[in-house]
Design goal:
UDP-N-acetylmuramoyl-L-alanine:D-glutamate ligase; alpha/beta; globular; 10 helices
């Protein structure tokens, strides 16, 4: 099955090192590792950082044919600082990914791939050019469902962009802090999680919303009247690096949807994959299905 991921590829710059990252890139790489066809759409600068980013992309097994080279704009970077085990970000823009392009020839190829899911986040969609390119992909790949990872970054979101993405989404992933932000932005008075999700889901005609909470696990709200609210527990692990764990979770969810698993099984797999990645250094560490099985057994 084919999954398209649209958005940023960038360098996470830590105090002592730099690593390739960007949520859409991480999701594409994990999706490929799981065993699906992954298509990544983005852009890098015509600079050494862009050269290295493309090398990293290829080393993950991804195809770079939909990753444009943009003259005069630097490849994306973000300063990352870890506080209490959690990352904090300072994003530098404009960046090359703000100018990603999808040609008519690209659309023809993408349509022929018959994607089943298209992943988008908020960050890159703040660019009007990215939004236009994304709309073109969505309009051409009409059978694909949209997975919207809210994934808010300080000073890099707006109510207008969030509302437009919610309106396009079939499934939404959001963490507890982000849910509170959406409650404020969308003027949702009921602060209870289930009712807030129900309000968002009904307003934007969303079939499912996943609320993540790390080791606490994840909640799933569904428009299905029979089972509207379930919780799946998380996994207690020693966190080595939380950067990218949420992206692994997203890839795990998409995998469960493709496999047509029950919601509990889907969220459990996503929880395990996110926890396993968080237990290792880097957003794209080596991991195996055997490790996931061992984690499930405790």
């Amino acid at each position: 099955m084919c999954v398209i991921s649209i958005g940023e590829i960038l360098w996470d710059v830590f105090e002592n090192t730099s690593r390739i990252g960007g949520a859409p890139f991480n999701v594409a790489a994990h999706t490929l590792k799981i065993g699906h066809d992954a298509v990544f759409i983005s852009a890098v600068g015509d600079d050494e950082s862009g050269n290295q980013a493309l090398q990293e992309l290829r080393s993950e097994g991804l195809d770079d044919r939909f990753v444009r080279r943009i003259d005069g704009v630097k490849t994306g970077t973000v300063d990352v600082r870890i506080a209490n085990g959690q990352p904090r970000f300072r994003i530098h823009r404009p960046a090359a990914y703000d100018y990603l392009e999808v040609s008519e020839a690209d659309l023809t190829v993408l349509r022929q791939m018959n994607p089943v899911w298209i992943y988008v986040g908020t960050l890159a969609q703040m660019s009007s050019q990215v939004r236009e390119a994304t709309d073109n992909v969505l309009n051409d790949c009409v059978s694909a469902k949209v997975f919207y990872d809210v994934n808010l970054r300080e000073n890099n979101y707006s109510c207008e962009v969030i509302r437009s993405l919610l309106a396009k989404a079939d499934v939404v992933k959001i963490n507890l802090e982000e849910l509170g932000t959406l409650q404020d932005l969308l003027h949702i008075r009921n602060r209870e999680r289930r009712m807030a999700c129900a309000s968002i889901g009904s307003t934007f005609d969303i079939s499912g919303i996943c609320v993540t909470a790390g080791e606490e696990g994840a909640w799933w709200w569904s428009a299905d009247a029979d089972r509207q609210w379930i919780k799946v527990p998380g996994y207690s692990i020693s966190v080595a690096d939380a950067v990218g764990a949420g992206d692994a979770f997203s890839a795990g969810m998409i995998h469960g949807f493709i496999m047509e698993w029950l919601w509990e099984e889907t969220l459990d797999f996503a929880n395990r994959l996110g926890a396993l990645v968080a237990s290792k250094e880097g957003a794209l560490p080596e991991w195996t299905f055997e490790e996931l099985t061992v984690l499930a057994r405790g």
